[in-house]
Inverse folding.
């Protein structure tokens, strides 16, 4: 082992043993199951947890779902603020959008957001569009899409939102504009 490799091994934390933790979700001892679920919730092991949700062992499946839910919520919160859903298919030059051009998963989230009542004492204009984006982000994370990839998609949606608001004369909504480049960098 070279000196550099030795120093790196001392400085970097060891890789978590995700497969062992997933295996422990169905362990006979409660404390072992709890420890595994807590550790998995703190990692980015979404793909392994997605597979574990299909385990024939009910306890493993349930605990994998709980840990996956914690990861999804943590990563979704880190992706805030989200843009309006319709910015994904908005034609910024023509000042219109056609929801039929949206991918089916986005259409489902958009419909659900409009039929679900939202109790908000300080309503944001077009809040159903933001709720739809949040639902879509959570859905994508729960299916294994990485947060960095979603950040790139959401940054492009923010850029389209800003272009649309600038071109359409919706000056009252200027406070909703997010700097897409800063967002993409995670700032």
């Amino acid at each position: 082992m070279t000196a550099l490799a030795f120093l790196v091994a001392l400085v970097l934390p060891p890789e978590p043993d995700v497969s062992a933790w997933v295996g422990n979700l169905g362990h006979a001892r409660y404390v072992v199951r709890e420890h595994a679920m807590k550790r998995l919730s703190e990692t980015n092991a979404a793909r392994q947890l997605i597979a574990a949700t299909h385990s024939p062992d009910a306890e493993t499946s349930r605990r994998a779902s709980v840990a996956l839910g914690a990861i999804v919520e943590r990563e979704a919160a880190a992706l805030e603020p989200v843009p309006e859903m319709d910015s994904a298919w908005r034609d910024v030059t023509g000042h219109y959008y056609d929801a039929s051009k949206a991918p089916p998963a986005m259409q489902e989230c958009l419909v659900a957001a409009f039929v679900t009542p939202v109790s908000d004492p300080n309503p944001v204009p077009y809040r159903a569009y933001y709720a739809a984006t949040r639902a879509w982000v959570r859905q994508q994370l729960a299916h294994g899409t990485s947060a960095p990839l979603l950040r790139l998609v959401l940054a492009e949606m923010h850029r389209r939102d800003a272009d649309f608001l600038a071109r359409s004369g919706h000056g009252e909504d200027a406070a909703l504009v997010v700097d897409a480049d800063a967002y993409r960098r995670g700032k």
